[in-house]
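Example S7 (structure tokens).
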């Protein structure tokens, strides 16, 4: 199976891409979705996170108080690193477990922090969803209501646009209409199916 990483900065359109690929029956393992499951009610990451950060980030039901946790790590690099050390190995393990049961020519691993976690070299192809920073800022503000300073802080801790493009084997440019992007995703899908078939032939020889 061809293993394809998909990444892009916040507000670049990754969710639109993965939703459309899933509509084409492509299996997608989404790091953000797995993270939400791990940290949701009864999730295996809840107790270790509360142990590390204290009862102030827990609700009265013993669940994570997500706004309190975000506030704790947002401007605290050490706290953010501690959270990542807890979560990232669990996310990797869950992705590996889910990957074992996939039967399709290729699988997409949606990993927003692909470069930040030094994982780009683990995959056969790296797809970067790319949009100009100004467009991303507008999308983020309309979707989440974050102010300019908060968006600046997020941009600062993520890999730059140039760094992402430097590792890309495929780029989905998302600066036009949704329909334009969907056409590019369809073209990418065909390309990845061809690459997957080529990889299968190589493995058979």
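Recovered sequence:
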């Amino acid at each position: 199976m061809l293993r394809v990483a998909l990444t892009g900065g916040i507000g670049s359109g990754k969710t639109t891409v993965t939703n459309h690929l899933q509509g084409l029956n492509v299996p997608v393992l989404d790091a953000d979705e797995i993270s939400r499951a791990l940290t949701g009610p009864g999730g295996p990451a809840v107790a270790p996170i509360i142990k590390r950060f204290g009862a102030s980030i827990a609700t009265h039901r013993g669940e994570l108080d997500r706004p309190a946790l975000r506030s704790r790590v947002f401007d605290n690099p050490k706290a953010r690193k501690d959270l990542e050390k807890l979560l990232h190995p669990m996310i990797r393990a869950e992705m590996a477990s889910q990957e074992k049961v996939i039967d399709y020519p290729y699988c997409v691993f949606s990993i927003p922090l692909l470069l930040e976690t030094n994982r780009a070299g683990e995959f056969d192809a790296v797809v970067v969803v790319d949009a100009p920073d100004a467009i991303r800022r507008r999308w983020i503000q309309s979707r989440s209501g974050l102010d300019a300073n908060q968006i600046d802080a997020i941009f600062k801790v993520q890999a730059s646009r140039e760094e992402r493009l430097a590792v890309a084997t495929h780029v989905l440019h998302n600066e036009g209409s949704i329909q334009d992007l969907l056409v590019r995703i369809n073209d990418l899908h065909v390309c990845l199916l061809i690459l997957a078939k080529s990889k299968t032939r190589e493995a058979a020889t």
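Notes on this example. Residues 41-101 form one domain.
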